[in-house]
Amino acid sequence: MKKTNLLFFMLLIAASGFSQGAPDYGSGLKFNLNEDGSKYLRVLAWNQIWFRASEMNPGTMINGEEATSSTDIGNRRLRILLQAQLSKRYMIVTHFGINNQTFTNGGASGTSGTGGYGAGKKPGLFFHDAWNEYAVILPEEGKFSLSLGGGLHYYMGLSRMTMASTLNFLTIDAPIFNWPLIENSDQFARQMGLFAKGKYGKFEYRVSYNKPFATNLIPVEPTNGESAVAVDNNGNAKWSKAGYFEYQFLDIESNVLPYKVGSYLGTKRVFNIGAGFYNAPDATRTSGGGDIWKHDITLLSADVFVDMPIGKPEKKMAITAYSVFYNYDFGPNYLRNLGIMNVGTVNPDYEGERALAGPGNFQPTMGTGNIWYTQAGILLPTAQEKPKVRIQPYGAYTYKNFEALQKASSQFDVGANFFIDGHHAKVTTQYSTRPVYTAVDKTDGLKGEFTVQLQIYL
Q1: In sequence order, which residues have a C-beta less than 8 Å from that of residue 110 and are 6 or more positions away?
Q2: Where are the beta strands (DSSP E) in 161-239?
Q3: Cβ–Cβ < 8 Å for 313, 291
Q4: Hey, CA dihedral for 146, 147, 152, 155, is it positive or negative?
Q5: 433: DSSP letter
Q6: What pLDDT shows up at residue 290?
Q7: DSSP assignment string, 59-95
Q8: Dist CA 423 CA 455 (whole Å)
Q9: Rounded distance, CA 451 to CA 431, Å?
């Protein structure tokens, strides 16, 4: 870990050299299209660069060499979002970029080997969001508001974190199981469909009706009836339904865009409770005795979010906390293993006990069963009017109990945000653990990963 510590301190030194007191960003880069500013084009751009030191799962190799650990740098997210407000009622949103480019993968489709289109090079831009929206009842017309829209959208219901903004996480990233369909029956947490959103006083609602992307994994014939494993195979996909309903006891949050804020840094007094769902009929399949069985995907959640200033106002302290419970049903024994920017591949010559999840930093991420996730952080006090750096230490805990595994797991994240200019320019450090299953009823302890992120957004 000596190299990691050196990298950490170098980043802190660099952070302290940034200038402070940049003008208020407001709506970011905004181009008014008429004199009163009711028609405009708003542009947001952000980069999240990751430096990592990771312990690899047993049975891992990296680019043809056996590996028990790895250090790397990668592009976690490079994005641009365009919001075109053509009138008070009509809006177009497009959001494009790349994700998860490492030195071994994340490049354009078909890139591999050595050369100009070698492994990990020249990733392709794609659209994350592309939808049209019309405000049927504007907020200023009364307590009730309603907007309708359609396209490739992020109004996927389920939980606050399912619709999280990637610009202002409390932790370094989302835990990923908050996007339970990620890159299977959705396109990077989005589906194409229709949505309705709005408010009634302090009550906010979001519902959608979507056509899931096609999945076609083939179920494996089980050795007995109890060991059938559901896989993603929706055939001629039936329409999915999703919704999220929230009561906002204190300050009212904006719902112009779907992205839920992770930490307001004490600029609001927020206390919300919410609940949501997602349902897709006949979305997975199992096989047994030559027969094929179809299963619905039914996902439920309940959550609570708190963000508010504490202590003396001149100290500018704040707390942020979020807790969510997920009940997931993808069908019998469904389990999916994922790892963010995984650089590891299978070592065919490994003779020890392998990780069931696979090589690199794979772990059991989502499946039929229950997940409880909680995070909390505190923005530390400052004695300066314009401090060069604000610090926000935080921690997170995850409990998973999946039907496919006979043993539940717990894992932790601890870290801190170093704010140079709020979320617009920050350095985040985090140490995360993950369980390593070598059998369905056996874990071989925890593996760790230390990450330093540099985020800048306009």
Answers
A1: 117
A2: 191-200, 203-211, 231-232
A3: no
A4: negative
A5: E
A6: 84
A7: TEEETTEE-SEEEEEEEEEEEEEEEEE-SSSEEEEEE
A8: 8
A9: 6
pLDDT (tens digit per residue) in 283-326: 999 998 889 999 999 999 999 999 999 999 999 999 999 999 99
Nearest alpha-carbon partner for 456 in 43, 45, 93: 45
The whole-number average pLDDT for the span 43-52 is 97
3-state secondary structure of 141: helix
Question: 2 φ, ψ to 5°?
Answer: -65, -40
How would residue 387 be classed by pLDDT, with cut points 50, 70 and 90? confident
Q: Which residues contact 150 (CB under 8 A, 6 or more apart)?
A: 131, 132, 193, 194, 195
Assigned token pair, 20: 């402070």
Amino acid symbol at 144: F
The position carrying tokens 């009212």 is 252
Of 16-20, 43-47, 186-190, 277-281, the poorest mean pLDDT is in 16-20
Report d(CA 172, CA 454) in Å as an integer.
10
Does residue 76 carry a pLDDT above 90?
Answer: yes
Q: Write down the residue that tokens 């709506």 correspond to.
A: 27
Judged against a pLDDT cut of 50, whether residue 124 lies above it is answered with yes
Domains of the chain, first to last: 2-17+32-457 (2.40.160.10)
Q: Which two tokens stand for residue 428?
A: 């985040």
- Cβ burial, residue 99 (10 Å; 0-12/13-18/19+): buried
Residues 224-257 pLDDT 10s: 767 899 999 999 999 999 999 999 999 999 999 9
CB 123 within 8 A of CB 109: no
Q: What is the largest distance, in Å, between two alpha-carbon atoms of the chain?
A: 72
Tokens of 258: 């779907």
Name the residue type at position 221.
Answer: E
